[in-house]
């Protein structure tokens, strides 16, 4: 007997729609998850930090009131103007305290440290240009220098990846016959542990000894904030009173930041070349409709920091070492074969 009324959705139509729009659905879920993560972070930061901020505000008000009572000849308006000027100067890295009189922010090593934080987009913010000429030069210097830094780091990462990642994996795979993906996963985990030890734990222990006011947690915090290029600026080494060999210390920190950032990029690139992460990435990216030789240079797979190196031509031997960890795929890392979609 024929069914009366309007026809319902055909069986399997929802599954077909989801399959056709898999990328859009995945992106929508990704955006929703990101907004949820952002909101949860805001709530947790607010609940953790707001009580400390309130306590500090009350303490400062009590100190100010007590100071005015102890110095009745000082007009409150004069004190307000003085404090406002002091705080403004402090935001520019200039302090009126006696223990900072011998510390200059713009000698050569301090300027080198500042230039490195600008070009790597770490930007601690503890020292900023004071003059209009310095601000204008900082804009021009950054416009040229940040892409230059990008090119430099991608070139370095390409060479380091061939030595510390692709060559060892290729050797173990061909020498002992282990699956390339298994070797790559173990290698990535070991490389990540080595990064944590050499660029977080050991430097944090050193900073704890050199910076008397820093705990080990605060030193780890500084290393992470710096090498992730967050650069909050609440902890900056070499700013204590009578710092021994301050210029050499600042130079050493600059070298640490440059080498550490390179190491972080190498480890991130190593993990991004794992097959599982590539499969996860395909869920959220748009499907390529054009042939691979017609894809523009600013294709989405080429926008990640270290992956720019894949557009650089190499020799045959280096090309073999630069193949991703997926057996049978001939594409460069971060560049997917449309036949695998």
Structural topology:
Layout: H1 13-20, H2 22-70, H3 76-91, H4 108-119, H5 132-176, H6 180-210, H7 216-227, H8 246-272, H9 275-284, H10 316-321
Task: Give an overview of the whole structure.
It is a single chain. By secondary structure, this protein is mainly alpha-helical. It is 63% helix and 0% strand. It has ten helices and no strands. The protein is globular and about 85 Å long. The model is unreliable at 297-318 and 326-341 (pLDDT under 50).
Q: Short description, anyone?
A:
With 341 residues, the chain is mostly helical.
Helicity range: 55-70%
What would you call the quaternary organization? single chain
Distance separating the two termini: 44 Å
**Rg from Cα:** 27 Å
The count of helical stretches stands at 10
Task: Give the biggest sheet.
Answer: none
Beta-strand residue fraction: under 5%
What's the number of extended β-strand segments? 0
Can you tag this structure with a few keywords?
341 residues; mainly alpha; single chain; disordered C terminus
């Amino acid at each position: 007997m024929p069914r009366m009324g309007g026809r319902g959705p055909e069986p399997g139509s929802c599954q077909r729609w989801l399959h056709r729009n898999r990328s859009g659905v995945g992106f929508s879920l990704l955006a929703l998850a990101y907004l949820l993560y952002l909101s949860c972070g805001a709530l947790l930061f607010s609940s953790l930090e707001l009580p400390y901020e309130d306590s500090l505000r009350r303490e400062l008000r009590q100190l100010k009131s007590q100071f005015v009572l102890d110095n009745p000849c000082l007009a409150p308006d004069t004190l307000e103007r003085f404090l406002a000027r002091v705080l403004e100067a402090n935001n520019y890295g200039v302090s009126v305290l006696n223990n900072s009189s011998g510390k200059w922010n713009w000698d050569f090593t301090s300027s080198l440290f500042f230039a490195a934080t600008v070009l790597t987009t770490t930007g601690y913010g503890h020292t900023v240009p004071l003059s209009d000429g310095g601000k204008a030069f900082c804009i021009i210097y950054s416009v040229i220098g940040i892409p230059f830094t990008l090119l430099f780091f991608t070139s370095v990462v390409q060479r380091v990846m061939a030595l510390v990642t692709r060559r060892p994996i290729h050797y173990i795979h061909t020498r002992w016959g282990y699956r390339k993906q298994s070797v790559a996963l173990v290698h990535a985990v070991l490389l990540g542990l080595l990064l944590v030890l050499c660029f977080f734990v050991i430097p944090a222990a050193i900073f704890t000894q050199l910076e008397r006011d820093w705990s080990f947690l605060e030193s780890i915090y500084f290393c992470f904030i710096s090498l992730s290029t967050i650069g909050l600026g609440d902890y900056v080494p070499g700013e204590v009173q009578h710092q021994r060999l301050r210029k050499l210390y600042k130079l050493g920190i600059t070298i640490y930041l440059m080498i550490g950032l390179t190491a972080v990029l190498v480890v991130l690139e190593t993990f991004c070349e794992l097959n599982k992460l590539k499969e996860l990435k395909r869920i959220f990216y748009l499907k390529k409709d054009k042939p691979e030789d017609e894809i523009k240079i600013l294709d989405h797979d080429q926008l990640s920091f270290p992956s720019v190196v894949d557009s650089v031509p190499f020799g045959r031997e280096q090309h073999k070492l630069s193949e991703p960890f997926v057996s049978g795929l001939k594409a460069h890392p971060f560049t997917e074969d449309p036949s695998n979609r």
